[in-house]
Amino acid sequence: MKFVIIIMVIVIIIIIIIIIIIIIIIIIILIIIIIIIIIIILIIITIIITIIIVIIIIVIIVVIIIIVIIIVVIIVVIIIIIIITIILIIITIIITNIIITTIIIIIIIIIIIIIIIIIIIIITIFIIIIIIITTTIIITTIIITIIIIIIIIIIIIFIIIIIIIIIIIIIIIIFIIIFIIFIIITWLSCVHNPSLCCNDIKFAS
């Protein structure tokens, strides 16, 4: 009888050790999964931030190039207009009187002003469009990043809950097994020593 009880105790100890090992393994797996998910999140965020920075840099470079081209065009146009004006003034002075010259100068000045205003309006519209596009890209990217992070966090929480449930189920099963073993040991004790069993029954009653 003592030998049977010793075997049962050893079995219980082995089961408890197995439970502890299983729980430790599950915890290690959980930690590894969480670390992997965190690394994936960091990689995704880094990629998104890099894309945003690259897009912003490209947009800025394009805007600068376009503005420089427009400024150069404006300067060239103004220089050409000034040269034409000077030539016309000289021709007018030679051919006609001062009144006609003045009218021509005024007309040319008005044309220059109109051209400059049109170019400024075009530049402004272009810059506004670029700002809107850049802002939209940045906001969209940020929203996508937030959604990805939320989804990953939900997945992590779900995994943790599942693992906790599994651990609880394993512990319950182990306790049930231990309880059954305890009942078997008690029954064997009663079989080998009926008087003890009877005393227990009397005590319980």
TrEMBL record:
The chain crosses the membrane at residues 6-30, 37-58, 64-91, 98-131, 137-159, 166-188. Keywords: Membrane, Transmembrane, Transmembrane helix. It comes from the Eukaryota. GO terms for cellular component: membrane. InterPro entries: GPCR_STE2. GO terms for molecular function: mating-type factor pheromone receptor activity. This is Uncharacterized protein. It comes from Liparis tanakae (Tanaka's snailfish).
